[in-house]
Design goal:
There is one protein chain. Helices cover about 15% and strands about 25% of the residues. The chain contains 8 helices and 33 strands. It has a 7-stranded mixed beta sheet with strand order 5-4-1-6-11-8-12, with helices on both faces. A 7-stranded parallel beta sheet has the order 15-18-21-24-27-30-32, with no helix packed on it. Strand 2 and strand 3 form a beta hairpin. The chain is globular, with a radius of gyration of 23 Å. The chain starts with 5 loop residues before the first strand and ends with a strand.
Length: about 425
């Protein structure tokens, strides 16, 4: 019989609708980050750095490239005969075949996978945060407090607390109350969506709540266990943690990587972030190139100027092009004389000669102001922007566009173009 002390279940099926056109063709955890990585690399690397060698990755929305990226887990040393990484999409059952309808429902549908390993503990993780955490230390805290459930919390500014699920604790970190996105928060301890359960508690609560529509950990499972009297404690995490669920927070987290003293350091030897690397040639910088404060991926050729930006691999910045405070993902080409300022270009975008992105005064986006904000220009993958056009701020572009899509050569601030 196989027995594992703790296994991880990583929820990676989210659509990430607040990232707009960046996630129209791929799952949020598969979005590029830091010029080299995918968002899911961070919790996966945390697992192997924490000594967890059995990880189930639950996928659903647009899973193809996420599955290809994970493969059999070689980059994270998770290619093992017993354990390793297993991708767990929804599957056909003899009855009640369903998509995953909530975080806890997704875990419940994979009960058989968990039972195979007879774990003492299960850690539940999200696939869409940027952080480094030693789950072994959290498990030690869980055991020391004789808890049935430990949830990781992070102290957020009180003025932002109403965006989160919050917990109220006593002086021993035992959870007394929950508040789900309250208008008038009484606590600033936000749940990070990271839980350690005693296996028997998790199993019993999921089986009891299996018919609950959209069964969710924060909304249903944790309150159910609390009412039943299970001891729940909060593990107050002190390190860097970023929810990159909005375009602005995603852009900010990337920009923080290139600070003079970055708050989140990708270069630490003792806590490496692992990823699947393409076999690419080294970067090339021409004698005319100017580069300052940037991360630049492999196989990228720079003939123009880039400042304070995160550039992926296989990118070409042609002569006379200028990039500032932008995220340029793998395979993009910025043609000669173009200017790109405060933009996010998804993979394989082409920006035409002398085109300017990020000009004019800001205006609220007409299509979806809550998504396309922060003064950003957001361009979906495989998009083409023609030469000699000017594009404003809070703009979204997706698809192959032509000069006729830009009246008088302009896309004003707050406008959007979506093409197939």
């Amino acid at each position: 019989m196989i027995r594992k002390e703790m296994i991880a279940m990583l929820l990676a099926g989210g659509q990430g609708s607040r990232l707009g056109v960046l996630t129209s063709k791929l799952a949020k955890p598969a979005v590029a980050f830091g010029g080299k990585y995918k968002i899911i690399d961070f919790p996966l690397s945390n697992c192997i750095n924490s000594g967890i060698d059995t990880v189930g990755v639950l996928t659903q929305y647009q899973p193809l490239r996420l599955n290809q990226h994970i493969g059999i887990g070689i980059p994270w040393d998770l290619d093992r005969n017993i354990g390793g990484v297993t991708v767990l999409p929804p599957y056909e059952k003899s009855e009640n075949t369903d998509w995953y309808t909530g975080t806890a429902n997704a875990i419940y549908q994979n009960m058989e996978f968990m039972e195979y390993y007879h774990p003492s503990y299960v850690v539940i993780l999200g696939g869409d945060h940027i952080y480094k955490m030693d789950y072994e230390m959290m498990l030690h805290f869980h055991k020391k407090n004789k808890a049935k459930i430990t949830l990781a919390t992070y102290e957020v500014p009180l003025e932002e607390a109403s965006r989160f699920g919050l917990v109220i604790t006593d002086e021993n970190n035992q959870v007394l109350e929950f508040e789900e996105k309250p208008k008038h928060p009484r606590s600033n301890k936000a749940s990070m969506g990271i839980y350690i359960f005693d296996w028997d508690v998790l199993k019993e609560s999921l089986e009891t709540l299996k018919d609950q529509p959209g069964c969710d950990f924060g909304m249903h499972v944790i309150p159910y266990c609390h009412e039943r009297g299970d001891k729940i404690v909060a593990y107050n995490y002190q390190g860097y943690w970023k929810d990159v669920g909005t375009l602005s927070s995603y852009w900010e987290a990337n920009m923080e990587l290139i600070d003079i003293i970055p708050e989140f350091n990708l270069y630490e030897e003792f806590w490496r972030i692992y990823t699947r690397s393409e076999l690419l040639p080294p970067q090339y910088f021409s004698s005319e190139a100017k580069v300052s404060g940037c991360i630049v991926g492999e196989g990228t050729e720079i003939y123009g100027e880039i400042y304070d930006s995160v550039i992926g691999s296989g990118v070409t910045i042609e002569e006379g092009a200028v990039i500032e405070r932008s995220i340029i993902m793998n395979g993009c080409t910025v043609k000669a004389g173009a200017r790109v300022e405060k933009a996010i270009l998804a993979e394989n975008v082409i920006v035409g000669e002398r085109t300017q992105l990020g000009v004019f005064e800001e205006a609220e986006n007409e299509f979806n102001p809550s998504v396309y904000a922060g003064g950003l220009v957001t361009v979906g993958e495989d998009s083409v922007i023609p030469p000699d056009v000017k594009v404003g701020k809070n703009v979204a572009i997706a698809g192959v566009t032509t000069a006729s899509d830009y009246p008088d050569g302009i896309l004003a601030s707050g406008k959007s173009i979506f093409r197939q």
